[in-house]
Design a protein that fits this description.
mainly alpha
Length: 89
């Protein structure tokens, strides 16, 4: 396992233990970065109008199209670190 993979796994644990829940936009960013890091570019059917949350999640993920999985992992780790330090909400 690479150092980045280990940091990514650690960040996944850390994000669940945050003292304060991040705001919705930050949660969408975390979701999108996680999906990009683990699955690559968005694929599958875009959720319909009735699934508002699913639609926003899909759009956040699709906005990262073309970003490499390693870069997404790095940005995910950096975002979790900033949340842990209280720098970003």
């Amino acid at each position: 396992m690479s150092t980045l993979d280990a940091r990514f796994e650690s960040a996944q644990i850390d994000v669940k233990a945050l003292a304060e829940k991040p705001g919705n936009m930050t949660l969408l960013r975390l979701y999108a970065l996680f999906k990009q890091a683990t699955h690559g570019d968005a694929h599958g059917e875009k959720p319909g109008f009735a699934d508002i949350v699913g639609k926003y999640k899909y759009e956040a993920w699709a906005s990262l199209k073309g970003m490499g999985q390693e870069q997404a992992k790095e940005q995910y780790v950096e975002l979790v670190q900033s949340l842990k330090s209280g720098a970003s909400h």
